[in-house]
Amino acid sequence: YFNDMPERVSNFSDLSARKEALLNKFLMQVDNALDIVLNAYHLPLFVLGTKRVLGHFNKLTKHAKNVNEYVHGNYEESTIPQLKQLLAPYIENWEKVIEKDMLNQLDKAAAHKKLATGMIEVWKQAMQHKGQLLVVEKNFMYAAEHVGERNLIRPANRMSNNFSYLKDAVDDIIEKVLEDGGDVEFVDKDVLKDYNHIALIKKY
Q: What pTM value is reported for the model?
């Protein structure tokens, strides 16, 4: 990164402050570049660096919720094979990495008020063609029945007639999200317990 700031003209503390300013400027450019990368590639994010650099990055980044792991150390001279070996323990269980990434995406969507959770609300938003990413626990099923209009459901009771009864409304939601060009991801049981086992990131 180029030092385009004025040369030091006084004491050592000025030099130290200038280095801090340059570091922050560099990290802000890195963070801005991450906007493009993370929008193009929805993959887990690992951040490697010294404790000092990571401390600065953590204070200014807009992408804290995207970070799966901070790895402390000086890896400036490391080769690609060395970096792969370094990260191997962190990505050994890829399913867990993806699950953590999914939870990060859900938290981010919730902060932007673009998240629906639980069967009733997820069904409603999916039927309104708003599904961008559906995250659901494996083997999660939900028997339901229509309430008045197609956009509304409720848990099924034994007296439901054949017309309104849905053996598994989760399958209908999955089909609808895919039809509308959205994506579906499955996670292990209880990973989404705080979201009532199913969550939908909305397009808008």
A: 0.64
